[in-house]
Amino acid sequence: MNHHSIGVNIKKILSLVGCLELLKILGAFTSEENSNQSGYKAQYFEGKSDNWYVKMVSETESRRNYTISYIGEGNRPLSFRYEIFETSYFTHPGEGELKNQEEFEIYIKCSGPCFAVSNSIPVQIEWEGKKKCS
């Protein structure tokens, strides 16, 4: 063997070792991710006021679904504003419409696992000059 072929073989071995280490690291992340997903417990919250009913369903750790319905007397408002206070740091403000539907749905996708939700999720709704927290 000449000096050049020894250098090539060492590079191949180092490259192979680098690939094996990378696979080990990726495997560790995959295992950890799968164990988190399999250990995740679905969450369900609901609450109502005199005029509004709100529920939250979270079946995966990276997504939450909210449904807002008007349950008050009289005609339902065509539009409303809401603010969901999941934590003291994360609020989700927005506008909803009930023009052609009975309920309004909000889909929140977290960039990773969503922050843990406490025992309650305050929701503030404003409509037709009125404001209500549920």
Give a summary of the structure in a few sentences.
With 134 residues, the chain is α+β, with helices and mostly antiparallel strands. Helix content is 28%, strand content 40%.
Question: How are the elements arranged and paired?
Answer:
Blueprint: H1 3-39, E1 43-48, E2 52-60, E3 63-70, E4 79-85, E5 91-97, E6 103-109, E7 123-127, E8 130-133
Antiparallel strand pairs: 1-2, 2-3, 3-6, 4-5, 4-7, 7-8
Helical amount among residues, as a percent range?
Answer: 25-40%
Terminal Cα separation, in Å?
A: 79 Å
- In the predicted model, the low-confidence regions spanning at least 5 consecutive residues are 3-37
Overall SS class: alpha+beta
Order of helices and strands: HEEEEEEEE
Major sheet, described briefly?
A: 4 strands, antiparallel
Which percent range describes the beta-strand content?
A: 35-45%
The dominant shape is elongated
User: How many alpha or pi helices?
Assistant: 1
Query: How many strand elements?
Result: 8
Q: What would you call the quaternary organization?
A: single chain
What's the mean pLDDT score? 74
Give the strand line-up of the largest sheet.
Answer: 1-2-3-6
How would you portray this structure in words?
The structure is a single chain. The chain is α+β, with helices and mostly antiparallel strands. The chain has 1 helix and 8 strands, in the order αββββββββ. The termini are far apart.
